[in-house]
Amino acid sequence: MPRSETSLFPPFGVTVDLVVLTVREHALSALTIRRGEPPFQGAWALPGGFVREGEGLEAAAARELAEETGLDRLPVHLEQLATFGDPGRDPRMRVVSVAYLVLAPDLPAPRPGGDAAGARWSSVGELLGDGGRLAFDHARILEDGVERARSKIEYSSLAAAFCPEEFTVGELRRVYESVWGVALDPRNFHRKVTGTPDFLVPTGGTTTRQGGRPAQLFRRGSAEKLNPPMLRPEA
Amino acid sequence: MPRSETSLFPPFGVTVDLVVLTVREHALSALTIRRGEPPFQGAWALPGGFVREGEGLEAAAARELAEETGLDRLPVHLEQLATFGDPGRDPRMRVVSVAYLVLAPDLPAPRPGGDAAGARWSSVGELLGDGGRLAFDHARILEDGVERARSKIEYSSLAAAFCPEEFTVGELRRVYESVWGVALDPRNFHRKVTGTPDFLVPTGGTTTRQGGRPAQLFRRGSAEKLNPPMLRPEA
DNA sequence: CCAAAAGTGTTCAATGTACACCCATGA
DNA sequence: TCATGGGTGTACATTGAACACTTTTGG
Q1: Where does the Nudix hydrolase domain start and stop, copy by copy (chains A, B) (predicted)?
Q2: CATH of region A156-220
Q3: Are A67 and A59 in contact (CB under 8 A)?
Q4: A211, CA 20 to 30 Å: which among A21, B28, B155, B231?
């Protein structure tokens, strides 16, 4: 809430950074781009960019997402994550970055857009492990995004955002197992999700794409909260 | 994550706004200040102000809090809430505001500091009801802060941040009842909080300040998460 | 004595957990 | 036929909900 002060307000650059998560090959993965320019030239970073004049924060995040993935109407979840503004987090100038969290189904290979020299999915384990060297404070931002996703699928129906439009109970369970890194009992999981009203809507179809007995296909239901929550084993 | 672009980045003002909550007279209340200058001169608003050059966001929030309350070392909880940056949210210029949530015990009467013309506590019911007319988009920010507080005391030990250093189980229960606006069973509540390991640490003392049989005094324990969570009646 | 708040015990229902078991497909 | 994943039934332990009851103060 600004109030006029004797000195002029200091000007800041404002950017949005995106933590775009998906589940690929049984691993929680994040979208990264290779920086084409200094600082951190050649390093991997989260996608993002400056907020434009007259542009809202969420609109800026959606625009950057479309630019980086090359897709326009994505079936994704987008929410604000947190804001990072330590002095010195960008060596060039004072920049405040509003981070957004995006949960997406396994997407086609990313098409680098804008001024990025490359784009790829990497498992968050690699990105945050010893080998990972993300530019700026992006490791910290990614950590926060992963933690948010891990805790939020406990008590919301958000895990379905990682699944394609139609999915099976087993596929949804593998999302939980990948994000949490644990094994869940398939039978109790099935009862839990099918027993929660308005969580899953059967489409009538079935599939055998996972092998074994044909599984029913579902769409996301209208329920947004999962009550009682899915319990995460201690791991 | 900034990248150089052909056009210069647009400069933004960056502020912090504070949602300072406490429980007074059985009502969840927020700290507001009366604006001494336009725009919204004379209107009530959340405390806040510009982030200074070279100052971190959380540091700016802590500074503003100290300035507005006149107290320095407060036994409070402070966490980032969300960031609001719609174009036009401030009529003078483009401003992005990082909101912080503060939970405090019932404090001495606020001392207006800085350029505020007054400061007071008001129940959030009044502030957000028909009569409430907060400046800027502060009603929206306050709503988000209240919702965060309401949901967070479910699964964390944060409710104790509303209590003085030493408190009774009954006082803690009244915090939950005030924040949620429901009645809880005193007996089951007692069992729940005293049965959660490291949530409450008995100090050995007792008090009769609430009348009736003397109650044990406790301090906050080291546990930060409440598992299983406190269940909020549907209300 | 009575009112008020603290604290304990007990019972019942709901829910999670573990696991035996059957089903329907592809190879 | 067998392996694989889908799906149901059931017994047991844990937890929350409701509430009767005792304890210890102040007025």
Answers
A1: 11-147
A2: 1.10.10.10
A3: no
A4: A21
Q: What are the φ/ψ torsions at residue A151 (nearest 5 degrees)?
A: -80, -30
CA distances A146 to A13, A41, A42, A127, A225, Å, are 26, 25, 24, 11, 19
DSSP three-state, residue A224: coil
* A35 CB inside 7 Å of strand C: no
Asked if B3's CB is within 8 angstroms of A55's CB, the reply is no
pLDDT digits (tens, 9 = 90+) for A73-129: 777 899 999 999 999 999 999 999 999 999 999 887 676 666 667 889 999 999 999
pLDDT for B61 beyond 50? yes
Q: Which amino acid is at B67?
A: E
**Domain spans of chain B?**
13-154, 156-220
**What is B13-154's CATH number, 3.90.79.10, 3.40.50.2300, 3.40.50.2000, 3.30.40.10?**
3.90.79.10
The DSSP bridge pattern shows strands A27-35 and A44-45 to be antiparallel
pLDDT of A7 reads 52
Task: Look at residue A2 and tell me whether its pLDDT is greater than 50.
Answer: no
